[in-house]
Amino acid sequence: MKHNPSYIFLFLVRFICLPVSAQDFHFSGFMHNQAYYNPAYAAVPKMNEFSMTYRNQWPGISANFVTYGATFIQPFLAIKSGIGVVFLRDVEAGGVISRTSANLLYGYSIRASRTLNMAAGIGASYVYRQFDPSTLVFASDLLNELGTSYPPVGISAYDKGYPDFSVGWLGEYKKDFTLGISAAHVTRPMESFSGEPASRLPVKYCLYSSYAFRTGGKYNRKGLDLTPSLLYVHQGTTNELVWGTTARINPLTAGVWLRNNLALNFSSLIFSIGILQEKYTFLYNYDVNLTSVNFLSTKTGAHEVTFLLRFEYKKKKQKAINCPT
C-alpha cells in the first residue's frame, strides 16, 4: 500500500535526520514485559516462562506503529541464575522503517536476607534496522494540473546492523515491594543512517517500582489485591512516567495508568483487563490518546495483547530394569 508523504515526513526527520531525539518503543503492559526493560529479570522466575506481546499504535491510519515481542526465560535454580532470549520486531510508518533484534539475557540472584532478594543482569543483542522508501508516494509520482511531472525525489533504501548492550538490577522485599533500575544502549551504538558522530543512540535509563497490598489472608484465596506501580524512562531529552494501579480478584485483574512527562503533560490514559493465574497470564491494554496529533488527524490510541505461560521442565524418569535372575 502506498503512503502519503504527509503521514511519514515527520518520521523521516525524526529517525534519519534527528536520531538523538528518538525514543525506543514501549509496552503499556510493562509489569508483564519486564525482561524488555531490565535484563536482571532473567534471574527472577522460578519456572520457565514464555510470553508473546503484540502492540498496534494508531491502528486507524496506514502509517502506524506495530511491535511484536517474544520472550523465553530458563531458570537455573541450582546456580541462582537464569538465561533469557528476547526477540523484538518493530515496524514504523507502515513498514517504511523497521527494526529487528535478538537479545540474550543473563541474570544472577542474591539472597541478601530472609526478606530481601536481589538480582543483577546483563544483556547483549544484535539489532538490524531497515529503511524502505518503496511504499512512499512523492510529488514526482503524480502529475500536476499542467500535465507535467515534478522533479524526481532520490531516496535510497538503507539497512544497518549493530550490537547493543544493557545492564540492570532488581530488588524484592518480602515479595511485596519491587524496585528495579536498568540502562540500555550503554555503548551508544550508531543507529542513524547518516553516520554523523552526533547521531549515536542515547542511553535509556529505566526505573521500575511496585508494591502489592494483599487483602486475602495468608494464602490470598479471597479478597481484593491492589498493586500500584510506576515506570520512569529517561532517554536523551525525553522523560516518560507511567503510573497507576491494578486490582485483582482472583483470577481477574484490571488496571488503569497515566502516561505523562515530568511537566505533567499527559499523553495517554491506559486501561487493562485480563486473567492472572499461576501458570498463565492473558492481558489486554488499550491506550486512550490524550494529545492532539494534528498532522495525523486522528485520536486513535493503541491496542496491546500479552500472553505469558509458566511451566516446569521435567526430565523423563528412567524405567527400572528388572534383574534377569
- Give the strand order, joined by hyphens, for the main sheet: 1-2-3-4-5-6-7-8-9-10-11-12-13-14
CATH class: Mainly Beta
Q: Work out the number of β strands.
A: 14
Helix-strand sequence: HHEEEEEEEEEEEEEE
> In total, how many domains does the architecture comprise?
1
Largest sheet: 14 strands, antiparallel, barrel
Oligomerization status of the protein chains: single chain
**What is the correct CATH architecture?**
Beta Barrel
**Share of residues in strands:** over 45%
* CATH topology-level fold name: Porin
Identify low-pLDDT runs: 3-21
- What gap, in angstroms, lies between the N and C termini? 76 Å
Give the radius of gyration.
23 Å
Describe this structure in words.
With 325 residues, the protein is mainly β. It has a single domain (5-140, 157-311), classed as Porin (Beta Barrel). Helices cover 5% and strands 49% of the residues. It is built from two helices and 14 strands; from the N terminus they run H-H-E-E-E-E-E-E-E-E-E-E-E-E-E-E. It has helices at 5-17, 34-37; strands at 48-57, 65-76, 81-92, 97-111, 116-131, 158-173, 177-184, 204-211, 225-235, 238-249, 252-260, 266-276, 280-289, 302-311. It has a 14-stranded antiparallel barrel with strand order 1-2-3-4-5-6-7-8-9-10-11-12-13-14. Strand 10 and strand 11 (252-260) form a beta hairpin. The chain starts with a helix and ends in a 14-residue tail after the last strand. Mean pLDDT is 83; it is low at 3-21.
